[in-house]
Every structure is written in structure tokens, then in C-alpha cells.
Design a protein that fits this description.
Strand order of the largest sheet: 2-6-5-4
CATH class: Alpha Beta
Strand content: 25-35%
Shape: elongated
Keywords: Glycosyltransferase, NAD, Transferase
Organism: Bambusicola thoracicus
Number of domains: 1
Distance between the termini: 48 Å
Protein name: Poly [ADP-ribose] polymerase
Helix content: 10-25%
Largest sheet: 4 strands, mixed
GO molecular function: NAD+ poly-ADP-ribosyltransferase activity; NAD+-protein mono-ADP-ribosyltransferase activity
Structural class: alpha+beta
Order of helices and strands: EHEHEEEEEH
Family: Belongs to the ARTD/PARP family.
CATH topology: Phosphoenolpyruvate Carboxykinase, domain 3
């Protein structure tokens, strides 16, 4: 990525909401775009990460009062707006592909990553669902 982007990688701290049943697989094998699509593929068939934890919270599906979310270091590199048909980012010039896809090129809040080498799941966050907290 550094070579094709003139030394730039653009590392960001992003969130990924998930259900508890996927935690072990992510921890042992990282994020795998090949099993994407459980919650949509509007910007491409990859692993989705959000700038805002509140957005990722929606995808923390559980039956209990605790939810889990990853905070990951993600190399987003050079990006472009994604499309649902993408299985990899499109070409940015005659020889190089974009590194990721986003929902908005001017102010991206959703990032789609197609290569697991671009992601390091740094933290696993477990927290109490607000709706459950009100009942306690």
C-alpha cells in the first residue's frame, strides 16, 4: 500500500459491530470478506467498519443485555465511493486499485475493506445495552 500510494497508508481507528458467535473466528482468523453480506453489501462485498461506534452498535445483535464490538486499526489507504457489485475496489489509474470503498468521498463514515491484511482487530469491547440498563 505504501508503495502504490506514495508512502501513504491512512490508518484509522474504526468500529465493527458483531454478534458474539463471530468473535472467536475474528480473533483467530481476522475479518474475512468472503463471509460478508450478513447485514448488506451496499458499498461492496467486503468487511464493513464505521467511524462512529453508535453506527456499529446496530449490528451488535444479541439476546442478552451485553453487546460486543471491535475497535480495529484499519489501513484505508486511498478510497472511493463503493457500489454493491464490487468484490474489490475499482481501478484508480491504469495499474493501481483503490485500497477501500466508502459511503462518501468527502466525509466518509463507513469503510469497506476487502483484504484482511489491512485490518488489525485491536480491542474487543463488551458493554451493557442501554435498553437493558434501564430495566435493571
Amino acid at each position: 500500500m505504501q508503495k502504490s500510494n506514495g508512502g501513504k497508508t491512512d490508518e484509522r481507528f474504526l468500529f465493527h459491530g458483531t454478534s458474539k458467535k463471530h468473535i472467536d473466528a475474528i480473533c483467530h482468523q481476522n475479518f474475512d470478506w468472503r463471509i460478508c453480506g450478513l447485514n448488506g453489501t451496499v458499498y461492496g462485498k467486503g468487511s464493513y467498519f464505521a467511524r462512529d461506534a453508535l453506527y456499529s452498535d446496530v449490528y451488535c445483535t444479541e439476546g442478552s443485555c451485553t453487546k460486543t464490538m471491535f475497535q480495529a486499526r484499519v489501513l484505508v489507504g486511498e478510497f472511493t465511493v463503493g457500489r454493491s457489485s464490487y468484490v474489490r475496489p475499482p481501478l484508480k489509474d491504469d495499474q493501481n486499485f483503490y485500497d477501500s470503498c466508502v459511503n462518501s468521498s468527502s466525509n466518509p463514515s463507513i469503510f469497506v475493506i476487502f483484504e484482511k491484511q489491512q485490518v488489525y482487530p485491536e480491542y474487543l469491547i463488551e458493554y451493557l445495552d442501554q435498553a437493558c440498563a434501564r430495566m435493571l
